[in-house]
Amino acid sequence: MSDPAAAPEPANPRIDASIPHSARIWNYWLGGKDNYRVDEEAGDAYTAVFPGIVTIARSSRAFLRRNITYLVSEAGIRQFLDIGTGLPTAQNTHEVAQRLAPEARIVYVDNDPMVLAHARALLYSTREGATAYVDADVTDPDRILAAAADTLDFGRPTALILSNILGHIADHGQARSIVTRLMDALPAGSYLSINDGSLGVDPVFEQAQDAYNSSGAVPYNLRTADEITTFFDGLDLVDPGVVSVTQWRPEPGPSAPEVVAEHGGLARKG
């Protein structure tokens, strides 16, 4: 646990350092420093029940990195709309994309005031490309699209990234309609990348998540792999489809990657 004296000071009245926050807890699990004592305590309480959450968090970030690498290197994508950005850590979308294609353009979207306070770290860009930050909620896709259009050309293929954000929308139908609205605004040749915590894989994980949702933090709702797959309806899934994130085009290794309770996929709009 980090030294409490080194914890960030609230610089925004919208930041409540007395209540654990999912973005800050996730940052803690990823080894970041942008969290408060209450987040560390909530994160430690979670890992006491389910230590595997750290593996899930890091596997999720690795999945996103492999997605972006595929999108840039194999699909030729140069525009990214990353909604539910979270706090900046290592291997952010713009870092991965612009390392491979310096001209890539990225728009991050989040409504977390702490993310906004750290937006400068996210907005660092190559000279050839661009990054921007939109302060908006995932449940307001029209606002997101209008603001993102200042940086992205929606006449060109764009990758929509929804990483561990749809679980914050309890109603599955509402979550699907938001994805549909966002993808409808993107042209053919665009891609959708989604990963979220999944039900039916690890009962200990589900128990820990239930306890977390009862802790006062903003709830995060797990969905089955089949439910996550429905977000890609009408799109062409890239092989191997919707799988545990560790099994999506894993890097070569001596053994098969373990299955974790986090599923994701990537699909192309035809």
TrEMBL record:
One Pfam family this sequence matches: Methyltransf_19
Entry keywords, A to Z: Methyltransferase, Transferase
Region (Disordered): 250-270
GO molecular function term, any single one: methyltransferase activity
InterPro entries, alphabetized: SAM_dep_MeTrfase_SAV2177_type
One GO term of the biological process aspect: methylation
Protein name per the record: SAM-dependent methyltransferase
